[in-house]
Amino acid sequence: EHGSGQWNTVSLLLSNGVRLKINGMMGSSALFGIIAAVTIPAFVQYSRRSKAAEAQLGLQKLSAASIAYYSTVRVDQNGTKQTPQFPKSAPLSPGNPAQHMCPDGGSRKFRATADTWAHETWKALSFSPKPSWYAYEYISSGAGPGSSFTARAYGDLDCDGILSTFEMRAQIDATGNVVKDGRVYINQEVE
Question: DSSP H helical segments within the chain, as ranges?
């Protein structure tokens, strides 16, 4: 009855066949609390996973650009063909994720400045994500067969000081072919 201070009974049939009855205002409040307890952590996890996609896409872009760079014929000022190689190593940019993405204890995207991606390697690979949840690092070694690169992305999505790490590698085999498995190594994806 409306107006008498009485609330109707809510009855839910769960997927396992159990019927859940909730009576009155306190029962309805409890139901909303249960729903919130389940959905809010799921939403936070979903949100972090969507942010983690940035790191994987960034590494795929770096990998494709690295292979294109290696495959491009280069000559010196005398016209002599150079031994193919990946771009030089580049430092972690923009720097420590906890410092740059969590400056006030809350997670936020880093807004790049003109200097953030100014290193010659980032320019050679046309890599400059703006804005970004992750910091990127590029390590290369050698020239010709046996040369390799490792690209990494680091993030701290919940600003707890524990970093997520994403990594992709490739190397050149003895016949000059690129060897990579195309997968991204992931550690603590949404920590």
Answer: 24-71, 97-100, 120-124
